[in-house]
Specification:
The complex is a heterodimer of chains A (112) and B (115).
Chain A (H helix, E strand, L loop, with lengths): L3 E4 L2 E4 L5 E7 L5 E7 L5 E9 L2 E4 L6 E3 L9 E3 L8 E8 L7 E2 L3 E5 L1
Parallel strand pairs in A: 2-11
Antiparallel strand pairs in A: 1-3, 3-8, 4-5, 4-9, 5-6, 7-8, 9-10, 9-11
Chain B lengths: L2 E4 L4 E4 L4 E3 L1 E4 L5 E7 L5 E7 L5 E4 L2 E4 L9 E3 L8 E10 L4 E6 L3 E6 L1
Parallel strand pairs in B: 2-12
Antiparallel strand pairs in B: 1-4, 3-9, 5-6, 5-10, 7-8, 8-9, 10-11, 10-12
Classes of the chains: A mainly beta (112), B mainly beta (115).
Amino acid sequence: DGGITQSPKYLFRKEGQNVTLSCEQNLNHDAMYWYRQDPGQGLRLIYYSQIVNDFQKGDIAEGYSVSREKKESFPLTVTSAQKNPTAFYLCASSKGRTPEAFFGQGTRLTVV
Amino acid sequence: GDSVTQMEGPVTLSEEAFLTINCTYTATGYPSLFWYVQYPGEGLQLLLKATKADDKGSNKGFEATYRKETTSFHLEKGSVQVSDSAVYFCALGLYSGGGADGLTFGKGTHLIIQP
């Protein structure tokens, strides 16, 4: 079945460490997105990519980095510069010419 | 900038009650509108959508009509079930010509249905 796979589901990180969240899709979608979800704040866009080897900052890109070397993959790195990284991270994809997005199951990151 | 405002919960109803969750939006262009649902610990699932004025999206007994004159997209269901308990997000999306550049979400409404 086609879909979006995020791994791991739960991730613990020590302060000062970088960590990379995985997102893979087999929907043949051109566009991919990363959102951050905090309680009571809805979802906020971190980065998005409309095509391989190209990506743009979203509303809250500081302290994060991404790459898009393959159409299927859009990993997110949470760097030590991100001041408050504990959150639920959601990856999504769309056909690119429509804004309708399909979401993965999320990764819950906790800084300990 | 673009924004979505939806009623914040929690909203608590009894089973078989009528549901309305209000959603209004502000957008610079002509957006598509969406309702997503999130169950605990999971990602978001698309519930329904509408792409132009007066379109009605519907799915699983839920409905919402794209009202351009009132910039609204209220979610309704005639008779809710305990299994409808979840968080509901209203969202808008714009196609910029170069491609879709992400959705703008409301803060979510936590719906609790009591038996």
